[in-house]
Amino acid sequence: MSLNSVPSGERVHIAFFGCRNAGKSSLVNAFTSQNLSIVSDVKGTTTDPVKKAMELLPLGPVVIIDTPGIDDEGTLGQMRISRAKNVLAQTDIAILVTDASSGPKEADNELIKLFKEHNLPFIVVKNKCDLLGEIPPDCANPQNEIYCSALSGYNINELKEMTAAKLKDMPKENPLISDLVNPGDIIVLVIPIDKSAPKGRLILPQQQVIRDALDSGAVPVMCRETELENTLLSLKDAPKMVITDSQAFKTVAKIVPESVPLTSFSILMARYKGNLSPSVLGAAELKNIKPGDKILISEGCTHHRQCEDIGAVKLPKWIREFTGSDPEITLSSGTEFPENLGEYKMIIHCGACMLNAAEAKSRYQRAIKAGVPITNYGTAIAYMNGILKRSLSLFPDLAEKI
Length: 402
Hints:
- The chain is of the alpha/beta class and 402 residues long.
- It has three domains: 3-169, Rossmann fold, CATH 3.40.50; 186-268, Rossmann fold, CATH 3.40.50.11420; 276-384, Rossmann fold (3-Layer(aba) Sandwich), CATH 3.40.50.
- Helix content is 33%, strand content 18%.
- The strands form three sheets. A six-stranded mixed beta sheet has the order 2-3-1-4-5-6, sandwiched between helices. It has a four-stranded parallel beta sheet with strand order 8-7-9-10, sandwiched between helices. A four-stranded parallel beta sheet has the order 12-11-13-14.
């Protein structure tokens, strides 16, 4: 996979925050060496978060986000502030841009409080230092503060290096399957090809599992559920594991011998994003669903929903069959994750392959804080088919919680 094709969810998200006219957009342009954001002397020029996926040395593949001023005014201004704050959920590293010539404002201090509440690593940039005449020799905190000038380019490279250092201190991502396989292991991937499958390509979790298996020296064998039985018979030895698309769980579970570990792409993605444990606990809420209960089915990406869409059609059908009731189903996709989660009895989320780990965790944390059980597609489907414990056999600590 080339750096240019790295999915957005796998890139580090670097967001620039600050007050109007602190020079955020100018600094973003200097930081990226591109005219990414519109720059003017008019306050509030940036009215919506601006995102750009790019390759930026020495940081690697990143997503740069420029946000509206956090001190905007009026009704529209409050909406812009809300959008700027929503970016916090997607942010891996925050860069607070202040005006060195006028000093920090109360809104800047409030942003720092928010960064700390979100456990976000951050850097305070004292921009426009070219207006000071003489630049002070040291910052109060050289690990978190730096004088810069977007106009002259002063300390821009040093800011990049400081940001790169913050990246090195970030927790390492969870493994996908590399810790579950050894070189030479055969794993079977069951990939249904239905009307909602993208023509000519595989969906992202399937691509990622295949790549991780190859990088680990394992041998991935792919088939549809209709060819699974013959595929297993053709193998000299039993595979190390079978990984299936969640919607084929019921069919696949009947074919795969109990002695062979079975799981799904969605369950692996939940572990990869750090949300498998709450997903396992949240799935049990399905047994308590009653008529009229509100269930949110949420997807991290946006796509044209087709007649056999798993989120809009299949999951609601399976939920009604399992519960014997008719709950109220609400759908959301992309960035449209509801503010008020307390009205829902439970939330069923997709595997979040298009969200970065920060946003995926944020959605789970918001649900947990609101007291709403949350699970994901694969975990919910396995639970409704009575095979959740089996699908977690690769993770015995979690299987014991069922």
